[in-house]
Amino acid sequence: LVLRLRGGHCQVPCGIFDDPKLVADVKEAIATIKKAMVQINELSAKLDAQNINQMTRWVNTKEEHAGKIISLMSEYCLCQRVKPVSDPKTPFKSEADYVAALQAHHKVMTCAVKCKQTVDPANADALDSAAAEMSKMYLPA
User: Fold this and answer.
1) Domains in the chain, ordered, with CATH?
2) Which of 140, 124, 128, 21 lies closest to 72 in space, CA to CA?
3) Distance of alpha carbon 77 from alpha carbon 117, whole angstroms
4) d(CA 138, CA 62)
5) pLDDT digit string (tens) for the chain, length 141 residues
6) Rounded to whole angstroms, what are the CA distances from 52 to 39, 48, 49, 117?
7) DSSP symbol at 110
8) DSSP letter string over 116-135?
9) Which residues of 62-85 are buried (b: 16+ CB within 10 A; e: fewer)?
């Protein structure tokens, strides 16, 4: 499924949207989540006050970036860009394409939640894969 979506970045909608920026923002958030997981795992080897402080900061950073991805998917992509086939502004030619788009965005969101819940880098890799699949809809061919 490769669809090109066009629309706005706010709920007005204003019609201003930068697809490559959306993808770059998601990629940057995932890279930050991956780094946070590595740092948390390394710092947990020695639990002193400084490491606990740094771990707390990394956990907060991981939470913030996973939350940003969830917000982008739900408030930005799903609310503004992924429209049902019955909508005249839909980019989808079939119900199957629409459902596939919903599933791709949902997969990103569930992977981001899993990253909030764990420090297993495999979950960040799963998020990266899900985001790469979803991103195909927003990048030029």
Assistant:
1) 19-136 (1.20.120)
2) 21
3) 23
4) 24
5) 444 444 445 666 677 778 889 999 999 999 999 999 999 999 999 999 999 999 999 999 999 999 999 999 998 899 888 999 999 988 899 999 999 999 999 999 999 999 999 999 999 999 999 999 999 998 877
6) 11, 6, 5, 18
7) H
8) HH---HHHHHHHHHHHHHHH
9) beebbebbbebbeebbbebbbbee
Residue 125 structure tokens:
């890799």
What is residue 76's predicted lDDT score, i.e. its pLDDT?
A: 85
Tell me the two tokens of residue 85: 């086939």
pTM of the model: 0.90
Q: Which amino acid is at 74?
A: S
Say whether the peptide bond before residue 13 is cis (omega within 30 degrees of 0): yes
